[in-house]
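Sequence in, structure out.
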Amino acid sequence: MGGEFLLLSVDLVVELEPEREGLINQACTEEDLNTVVAAYTSDLMLGGPEALAATKKLARQIPRMLPADAYALLAELSAERFQSPEGQEGITAFREKRPAAWVR
């Protein structure tokens, strides 16, 4: 079956156990939803803004690429991000056991 059916069929997703299959990060009750979303949001806020933007762009590009090209692009972007001022700040903050400059 195509991915479209998977996205549209609740029955199929329930049968697949979506959390175990990696289709969702976490299942929770409606009462816990705000807490779960806040935890994921807090974790995302720890990432460098430029790195997060690059990751979002990469997530849109990768599905249209051949695997070898995708790996090459990922390696190139990873090296660029680690060498960037933001990447160096993240590495320094980690070594100094302090929040990075962009964390509020």
